[in-house]
Every structure is written in C-alpha cells, then in structure tokens.
Model the fold of this input.
Amino acid sequence: MNAPHPAFRSLDQVSAVLFDLDGVLTPTADLHRYAWQSMFNGVFAEKGVSRPYTDDDYFEYLDGKQRYEAVASLLASRGIQVPLGSPDDPPAADTVCGIGNRKNGYFSRVLEERGIRAYPGSLALVDELYAKRMPMGVVSSSKNARWVLTSAGMLDRFAVIVDGVVAADEALGSKPAPDMFLYAAEKLQISPSEIAVFEDAISGVASARAGDFGLVVGVDRGAGIDALLAAGADVVIDDLAVYAHGAVPTEERNRA
Done:
C-alpha cells in the first residue's frame, strides 16, 4: 500500500474533502471500463475500424470525462466523425449522444446484475470523517452517481453531489477543467485551498490541481503513479485506508 509523505498523512488541516466516485469510493470504474469496451467493440465492428479498443484508450480518452465528451474524444482518435445529436437520442442513433446513451445501457445492465459495494478502505475513511462531521462531497462526471451511491449505501454521507447531471444543468466544463470541483467548493462554502481532493483519473487530478485545491491525492487504480504525479497529485496512494485511523504506512510517493 502506497502511503502519503509525512507532510500529507493527515486530513486534520483541511476543512472539507471532495471525492471522485468511480475508482475512488466504489469499483464502478471496472464496470464503466467493461461497458465502454463492450460498446466500442460493437461500434468499431460496425464501422470497420481496424485498430481495436484497448485499456489505454480508456485512460487516455474516457476516464474522468463527461460521457458525450468521452465518446467524441475516442471516436476522433479513430478518425470517426458523427453528428453530436441530442441527449434524447435513442441508443441506436449514430450520433455522439446516441452512442453515449448506448454505453449507459451496457453500464446500467451490468450494475443491476452485479450490484456495487464501496471499497472497504474508502468506506472506512468516509465513515470516520462523517463521524467527525467533516463536510464531504462527491464530484463525478457520471450521470449515475446518485444511483451508485444509493446502491453502495453511501448517499447520506455527502452534503454536496456534483455529477454529470449537475454539470449539464449548470454548463460546467468537463474534467480536466476545474469547473466541477470549484462548483462543489462553492456549494460547501469553503475555499478550495482548504479542501482535499481524492481522484483516480489523470484528468481528475489535473482538474483539482487547476482549481488550486489544498491537497490533491491521486488514487492509483491503474492510471499509474508517475502519471498521476505528473498530472499534479501531491501524493499517490492505492487505498484510502492509509488516511483512516491506525493505518500503517509502508511506501511513499509524493510530488517533488
């Protein structure tokens, strides 16, 4: 388990904490990755794309971004252009929105089949902070955030939830723009400099750094320690349990 540098080991000096959802609080990132891969394998087969979908595509073009922006980004990487369409487009529509809605269908089915539980270390930290009455929020590009939090039994822990639905309603820029995190800080009425952010996506870490948040903790669920540090993380861990009471540090990686 990667543990934070001594200067970053405590959350006692922050006034609030913001968490990304998928890959930080819950392993729904795995479900999203499965849904994206299944959906794009079908799209590429339909369009005769020879270069297959890979895990690298997920981290480079999809991870942390709002759904339609993610779709457009990956399609562009294969030289595919389709109309943007409308969020009301059916999943069969050959538009960015239609394809994005198709992906959400895959995700919804797999979530219903498998269910979801929070990472034990993440749940331990959230419960500990909740008991201390630490203001907390979730900042997720997913439009399914409330559903996932409800399924994981965590919805009542968070004073603020800024998800893909809120981002669309408020015209907030997608990560790596800092808009969603800054909006959450505004709703908490706490300065970003007094807030810690936990993020597993490179775009999410870059978003928090661009917003000048007081502590940016990268959570390595596959993006890579060096990539998260390069994006602006102050420290990289692989389990939020290192911030919970009684955690024993074993290895440290922090931003120089």
User: Anything to note?
Assistant: Residues 28-47 form the longest helix (20 residues). The chain is about 45% helix and 10% strand. The CA atoms of residues 69 and 174 lie 8 Å apart. The two ends are 20 Å apart (CA to CA).
